[in-house]
Write a structure and sequence with these properties.
There is one protein chain. By secondary structure, this protein is α/β, with parallel strands linked by helices. The protein has eight helices and eight strands.
Length: 220
């Protein structure tokens, strides 16, 4: 049986949080406000990167002025209404409580803006499980990637890569973990591509599948 390291680093969107309803709502609101027809696309296939990248793909454009406008309208909608449609994936609270009881240290690594990430975690009742959250806008200038966020976490805490595992749902999560030689657990309930090229410690369909690994833990 695989033994989980003491520190568990979670991505948010597609891993802990099902954010598609709120993001889809606010993308439509942004396109409506910009006078554009609603985009026809599969949001699950493009979610994960920063919202400007998502909007660029949805609108099939790199036009700076248009993307500035869409991002402004998106933020106005998402920061007031869209985020409220976010829900936890089934079993999230139970898993986090079990991990804390087993002695794990929990952290967030996310592309989500810090204020909205914190608001979602508080509203969903899971903020207290996490020691610290690393987002792109946690520093100025912003982190360029999740790899940079992980580098900062390892240095700040400080932690060894062998003492950590990253839990995520995208190639970006897997690549960031591999960059720092951190083990990676892929959540199949998320939005990412299943054909991952990076090393994967486990592929899990849902959070209930974590429980057998916690049952053999003694990390305190």
């Amino acid at each position: 049986m695989i033994k989980l390291p003491q520190c568990v680093l979670f991505d948010l969107d597609g891993t802990l949080l099902d954010s598609i309803p709120g993001i889809a709502y606010s993308i439509k609101a942004a396109f409506d406000a910009a006078g554009l027809p609603a985009p026809a696309f599969d949001l699950r296939r493009i979610i994960g990167p920063p919202v400007r990248t998502i909007l660029s793909r949805a609108a099939a454009t790199n036009d700076t002025a248009l993307l500035d406008e869409l991002e402004r309208h998106f933020r106005a909608s998402y920061d007031t209404e869209g985020w409220r449609l976010t829900v936890c994936f089934p079993g999230t609270s139970e898993l986090l409580a079990a991990m804390k009881a087993a002695g794990h240290r929990l952290f967030i690594i996310s592309n989500k803006p810090r204020h909205i990430a914190a608001t979602c975690l508080e509203a969903l009742g899971i903020a207290a499980y996490f020691e610290q959250m690393y987002t792109r806008d946690s520093v100025e200038p912003p982190y360029a990637s999740k790899g940079d966020m992980l580098r900062a976490l390892l240095a700040d805490q400080p932690l060894r890569a062998v003492d950590c595992v990253m839990v995520g749902d995208t190639m970006e999560d897997a690549s960031a973990a591999a960059l720092h030689k951190i083990s990676f657990i892929f959540m199949e309930h998320g939005y990412g591509d299943l054909s991952l090229a990076e090393p994967v410690l486990l592929k899990l369909g849902n959070f209930s599948e974590f429980m057998p690994f916690l049952a053999v833990e003694n990390v305190q």
